[in-house]
Amino acid sequence: MARAALFDVDGTLVDTNHLHVVTWWEAFRQAGHDVPMHDVHRAIGLGSDDILTHLLGKNRDKEQDAQISAAHTALYGTYNDRLPQLQGAQDLLRNLAGRGWRIVLATSAGDPELKSLRRAIGADDVIWGVAGADDVAEGKPAPDPVHRALELAETDADQAVFVGDTVWDMRAATAAGVRAIAVLCGGIPRTDLEEAGAAAVYDSPADLLGQLDTSVLAQVSG
């Protein structure tokens, strides 16, 4: 059975979380909503519809949803050609692929945004597959994206490890029965990630790469 390393993208491999915070905050402001950036930050990692529900509530004026999402897309899109990968991200993926791991991305990003994120990572030649927002019925923290990633990798949950940076990532992986590793570079506190199911926490992709031989990934025999 193949081993699979499943990765979130925003805040895990590409340094975009704070760009999303600012652009969602501005999109909300333009629609007349005063949403604290702290709250926006904690919601990053959810899909667009879930972010709106999480921050504005189920009883919001849903006629504004399309306007707010479009504003966020337009504001965030101004950064698409200069998204920075996190230190060690590409090297981590290439190292794992060289060891026989199948690399699958599991992200809340849709297809247009994914193109920019994959360009930032610069490792398309070792990426086995991608489970994006357009590929599942329900996004994180539901296990659907992780289940889809496992299907793409053609492997079972006990032969996979999920790496992410938010509590939504940890909950999705745990719900799918996949061991979860967290990185702190998305800005979420260690305690929150551990409480959400992280088996181990590292500072960044570079930190995980440096400790790969003693990490949770080393416990998957293949």
From TrEMBL:
Instruction: Tell me if Hydrolase is a UniProt keyword of this record.
Output: yes
What the entry lists under Gene3D superfamilies is as follows:
HAD superfamily/HAD-like, Putative phosphatase, domain 2
Q: Which residues constitute the signal peptide according to the record?
A: none
GO MF term set: phosphoglycolate phosphatase activity
Q: Which UniProt keywords apply?
A: Hydrolase
GO CC annotations on file: cytosol
Is the keyword Ribonucleoprotein in the record? Answer: no
A GO BP term here is: DNA repair
Q: What PANTHER family does the entry give?
A: BLL8046 PROTEIN (PTHR43434:SF16), PHOSPHOGLYCOLATE PHOSPHATASE (PTHR43434)
Protein name (database record): HAD family hydrolase
